[in-house]
From TrEMBL:
Residues 7-65, 71-130 form the CBS domain. It comes from Sulfobacillus harzensis. Keywords: CBS domain. CDD domains: CBS_pair_HRP1_like (cd04622). InterPro entries: CBS_dom, CBS_dom_sf, Diverse_CBS-Domain. PROSITE patterns: CBS. PANTHER family: CBS DOMAIN-CONTAINING PROTEIN, CBS DOMAIN-CONTAINING PROTEIN CBSX3, MITOCHONDRIAL. SMART domains: CBS (SM00116). It holds the Pfam family CBS. This is CBS domain-containing protein.
Length: 145
């Protein structure tokens, strides 16, 4: 099974100039901890709930602070044709719960660990990914497109 068969196509995004409040509202609405940051449909970063708390709020910045002041610029992506098992391993290796799905440089979807688990086909892969994602302070040095 490929990523395109299980990814979400309705992806909520922010731009780097949007306020962090908008990103937080999307996270609340979608019930997730990260949102892709896009520029003309291209993923340029991710902003996480942790980015907002640690890089913005803890630094005394308010809700109108632009996303660019706290976003994570290392982005790990997959293509729609990526095998779901490989995507699960990519999540585990990079300790992320959501992967932007990119085709021809443009965001076309997002794959969440919950998408893998919902299919019941990749229970062991998503369980492995979740276990590895939850490892404390493991560093990721890979950027994959």
């Amino acid at each position: 099974m490929n990523v395109q068969e299980i990814m979400s196509k309705d992806v909520k995004t922010v731009t780097s100039s949007d306020p962090i409040k908008k990103a937080a509202e999307i996270m609340k609405q979608v019930d997730c901890g990260s949102v892709p940051v896009v520029d003309q449909g291209k993923v340029i970063a991710m902003v996480t709930d942790r980015d907002i708390v640690v890089r913005a709020v803890a630094g005394g910045k308010g809700p109108d602070t632009p996303v660019k002041e706290c976003m994570s610029q290392t982005v790990v992506t997959v293509s729609p044709e990526t095998d779901a098992r490989k995507a699960a391993n990519t999540m585990a290796d990079n300790q992320v719960r959501r992967l932007p799905v990119v085709q021809n440089g443009q965001l076309v979807g997002i794959l969440a660990i919950a998408d893998l688990a919902r299919k019941n086909i990749y229970v062991s892969e998503s369980g492995h990914a979740l276990s590895d994602i939850s490892e404390p302070n493991r560093q990721s040095n890979a950027v994959q497109h």
